Write the structure tokens for this entry.
Amino acid sequence: MNLISSLRNGDQAAMEIIYNTHWEQVLDAAYKRVGDNQIAQDITQDIFISLWEKRATLEIKESLAAYLLGSVKYRVINYFKANITKEKYKEDFRCLIGNTSSLNASHRITVKELHRELDEAIATLPEKMQTIFSMSRKQEKSNIEISAELNLSVQT
């Protein structure tokens, strides 16, 4: 039985062989695209987790290496899309909480109202989510930093 068939059947040893054989190539490809080792490691980890989670429905038309490198390509694209969106929201948020002295009276009232609504919305979240939101948006910490401080998985 080949590795892919074994993987589809939930064979953890097959997954371990696949990981040990391909992780360096996947990490290298991710690093070359994002230029940040931590992000490349996260992408690599996500790819292998996804491979395991989707093992039963896995359809590999070419080689496993080609499949994994294709996964890198799409994960990197998704990373940059998410990062662009995140940066836009950060900038909007900075404007929202930033200096309102240059705004006219009407805009200042609108900004104060938005602050109040935002605070009310945050207050409805469970306490742990409020903490995470504050760390993420106000303290501008990464998911990795937050998960390390709170002893949570990055996915949480």
